[in-house]
Amino acid sequence: MSSQKHVEMTAEELHCQYEYMAKVKEILQHRYVHPPLAHVHSFGCQANVSDGERIKGMLAEMGYGFTDSTDSADFILYNTCAIRKGAEDRVFGNVGELQHNKRSRKDMIIGLCGCMMQQEQVAAKIKKSYPHVDIVFGTHAMHKFPQILFQALTQKQRVFQIDDSENVIAEGLPIRRDGSYKAWIQIMYGCDNFCTYCIVPYVRGREHSRRPEKIVAEARELVAQGYKEITLLGQNVNSYGKGLDGDVSFSKLLRMINEIEGDFRVRFMTSHPKDCTHELLDTISQCDKVCRHIHLPVQSGSDRILKLMNRHYTRDQYLDLVRYARAKMPDVTFTSDIIVGFPSETHDDLLQTIKLIKEVEYDALFTFIYSKREGTKAAGMDDPVPEKEKSLWFRELQAAQTEVGSRHNAALVGKTLRVLADGHAKSGEGYLTGRTDSNAVVDFKADDGHIGKFVKVHITKALSWAVLGEIVDE
């Protein structure tokens, strides 16, 4: 199946949503003496966080302030994640607790949106078992949020919008960013890969890309505002450009953003190995603002499991990409995602994955025990290995990565690295933390005035999960 055609929100539709924002603002001004407060929490991946920033942008336009506390909120919205069962269970638990908020504040509004809500069975469960939830909308209806909220405020009845129509790229809606020096830019939406374990294509829809000129304009505006790190987001950024007119690719988009003047750096995620080309690796090596760090999810080191996962590459093809990248960029680092305990996986398959970890020498891994997702092909596969054994395998894999990661950190001792100070560290009072261009975690003693700035740090000590250092005077 091919990806969806490029569909953008029309100027008329955008104007209509802004009119709804104005109507909601007028309603709120009549109902509240002070601006009402909204609590928005996004579960899951960076794409969800980015969606949450757009939701908060619309809420701010409608006159809401914001609070970190559900107890003081007049409006609560959970932006949900469906990637693993544990994420769904947390949402149901948190939503259940909100019935107490509703009892004490009858006029408050509680909403759910995002990937979980795009699943009909989940929306049906919310409708039946959680009567205190007022609005529910899926990923495909995100751009209609002002209209949905207006309906909830005026009709005094629950609003459920689970739209199965084509995904729409909504340019021009407001954004309220969570940070002042690091920002996300969504460059594409959806996924065409249909890995057998993954629910994303079913809840996020098919691949569709934003126009490059819109992305570059957003990046240029962020740099002008002083942002130091821009992360380009997509379920598979390597396939960026599908459905667009003209000859555009992710490599070309990176070059366009790299040409923007200013002191900033560019990251991206996530890359799919089957679409990671030599052209892309050449581009990264030639762009001075693109970080020499590639998140390249492998999921398994066993060809048999990779085929069952529908990943469309082999172990050798993956290793060829790593070797080519290192030939072009000796300082490049890799991180990855790995699933342990996929249906029919054996301990021998796991050992092949551990061997791959030692061959690639990842700087860090995001490891997960397989989570069954109803509606995916893998959900119907035989899964005979008990959870207890999978947990033992999981620890075995983590131990292998800890040894590799510790060795990588030890190799940084004595070097002076460029770090973007990101906030307070866990190492102790007076310490800040940040990341290098290669994504290494660095803790160093400094005052809060350095947060959001690039600093030079001389590395003095290696820990298992980070390195320690001292600021070097410029």
Task: Name a few traits of the molecule.
474 residues; alpha/beta; Rossmann fold; pyruvate-formate lyase- activating enzyme; OB fold (Dihydrolipoamide Acetyltransferase, E2P); 3 domains; six-stranded parallel beta sheet; five-stranded mixed beta barrel; 13 helices; 19 strands
Could you walk me through the main structural features you see in this protein, from its secondary elements to its overall organization?
With 474 residues, this protein is α/β, with parallel strands linked by helices. It folds into three domains: 11-161, 3-Layer(aba) Sandwich (Rossmann fold), CATH 3.40.50.12160; 182-409, tm_1862 like domain (pyruvate-formate lyase- activating enzyme); 416-471, Nucleic acid-binding proteins (OB fold (Dihydrolipoamide Acetyltransferase, E2P)). The protein is built from 13 helices and 19 strands. It has helices at residues 11-31, 46-61, 85-104, 120-129, 145-155, 200-204, 212-224, 250-258, 278-286, 303-308, 315-328, 347-360, 387-410, and strands at 37-42, 65-66, 75-80, 109-114, 135-137, 159-161, 182-186, 188-189, 208-209, 229-233, 265-269, 293-295, 333-340, 364-369, 416-424, 431-436, 441-445, 454-462, 467-471. β18 (454-462) and β19 (467-471) form a beta hairpin. It is globular, with a radius of gyration of 23 Å.
